[in-house]
Structure formats: structure tokens, C-alpha cells
Design goal:
alpha/beta; Rossmann fold; five-stranded parallel beta sheet; 7 strands; 44% helix; transmembrane transporter activity; ABC-type multidrug transport system, ATPase component; ATP binding
């Protein structure tokens, strides 16, 4: 599913709400048969976020390998049921290392990120990655938890037309593997590679008619709804961080 619309139209808020990271104030929704209002925590366990600014930002100074190892450790500690965590803790160090290797190898393959093609392999710093490579790493990190729903924000941000095609091919491949993909984008393609079904939901709203409150004040200052929108965005990110 693609959530389209201009920046500031509520795309990210809708994405966070549908993954159980933001409380609903109105309406009803079900994700995987779970009611969001009553089962938000259960939805969070089945949904993973990728490429959401202010929520799961990559650390530029860390390497690709360090990000992968960190996510595997977090998944082992917080992302599985207590009984499964106990069983994992009883495994030998060699078995745990093999499990970790298998987890991130599967995630890298699904995200199409080839470590051998990077300048320094797994020791490549995030700041040295191209934009699409960063997106692939974000997707790989999210897939380590083996989610049923993958939510990707700003999927096509600052990507050229050829790179957008690669990005949609990546998400179509993930969807073909059985994971439902929810992608926020500026514009959705007419169809996805491989005949993968695509539903498009627009979050746009009319902006042509501007009120006096929206009109920039002298000196570049703005009043009214601009400040309210910025406050709503900040509140949403803070609530997501707490979740």
C-alpha cells in the first residue's frame, strides 16, 4: 500500500497510527485483524518501521555491520516472547552467533543490500552510503524482526527516476515474500514489478485557498496553523519515541 501526498499532509502520522505507534483519537482501524484502539501493543509486535526520521534514524558514524549487530541484539532481548528468549539464552555462544548471522543474512538478502559491493564491506560507515543503500539498510534492519507489516517513510525522498524504480522493485520483492508493505511516498507508480498488488491512498488536502492566518507575516514569520502543524508533528514524534 502506498500513502501518497505532499509533505505536511499527515502521511507519517497515519503510518505511525497504523503501526500502533500513535494513539487514535477518532475512527477505527484493524491491522491483521487487531483493533488498533484496543490492541496497539499487539500491532507493534507485528509491525516494523523503516526510514522514519526522528524515530529510527541511522547513526552516521557507525558501520553497517555495527547497525546489524545492534539490531540483532535488541531483537534477541526485546523482540521475542519470554520463553523463546530463555531458550535462546540457553544456546551455546557458537549457536547464538550462527543464529545472529542467519538473521541478518536473510534480512540483507531480502533488502537487496550486498555488503561485498560496499566500499569497505560491513565496515562501511553509514555516512558513506548512497541514499538508496541507506534505505536498503533501514529495510534490512526492520526485517530482522521478521514483521508481518513493514512501514517505510519517505520511500522516494530525493531519489532519481531510475532509483525510484529500484526502490519500488525492492518493496515489491519484500511484499512478494509475504510481508505487507506500507510505504509513504510523494507519488506512487502505476503498477509494481511482478504483478504485486498495489493500493494507493492519498493524504493530500487543499492548499490553494490560504487564510490570513496562513499568510507569512512580514520578515518571513508565520502564524496560525503553521505553528500548530509543527507542534502536532513534534508531539507525534515524542509519543512515538515513548512507545
Amino acid at each position: 500500500m502506498a500513502l501518497t501526498g505532499a509533505s505536511g499532509t499527515g502521511r507519517t502520522c497515519l503510518l505511525l497510527a497504523l503501526t500502533g505507534r500513535m494513539r487514535l483519537t477518532e475512527g477505527e482501524a484493524r491491522v491483521g485483524g487487531l483493533r488498533l484502539r484496543k490492541k496497539a501493543s499487539a500491532v507493534r509486535r507485528t509491525a516494523a518501521l523503516a526510514h522514519v526520521p526522528g524515530v529510527d534514524d541511522l547513526e552516521p558514524s557507525l558501520t553497517v555491520g555495527e547497525h546489524l549487530r545492534e539490531r540483532v541484539l535488541l531483537q534477541r532481548r526485546y523482540g521475542i516472547a519470554p520463553l523463546a528468549a530463555l531458550k535462546a539464552a540457553l544456546r551455546s555462544p557458537r549457536q547464538r552467533r550462527a543464529d545472529a548471522r542467519r538473521l541478518h543474512d536473510e534480512a540483507l538478502a531480502a533488502a537487496g543490500l550486498d555488503l561485498a559491493a560496499l566500499p569497505k564491506g560491513s565496515r562501511t560507515a553509514v555516512r558513506d552510503l548512497e541514499r538508496l543503500e541507506r534505505l536498503r539498510l533501514c529495510v534490512a534492519l526492520a526485517l530482522i524482526g521478521r514483521p508481518r507489516l513493514l512501514a517505510v517513510d519517505d520511500a522516494d525522498l530525493k531519489l532519481s527516476a531510475p532509483l525510484r524504480e529500484e526502490m519500488w522493485a525492492l518493496l515489491a520483492s519484500v511484499a512478494a515474500g509475504g510481508v505487507t508493505v506500507l510505504a509513504v511516498c510523494g507519488e506512487a507508480p502505476g503498477e509494481l514489478p511482478g504483478g504485486v498488488p498495489l493500493a494507493v491512498v492519498g493524504t493530500g488536502r487543499a492548499t490553494a485557498a490560504r487564510t490570513a492566518e496562513d499568510t507569512p507575516a512580514p520578515g518571513g514569520a508565520t502564524t496560525g496553523t503553521t505553528d500548530e502543524n509543527e507542534k502536532e508533528t513534534a508531539d507525534a514524534l515524542a509519543e512515538t519515541g515513548r512507545a
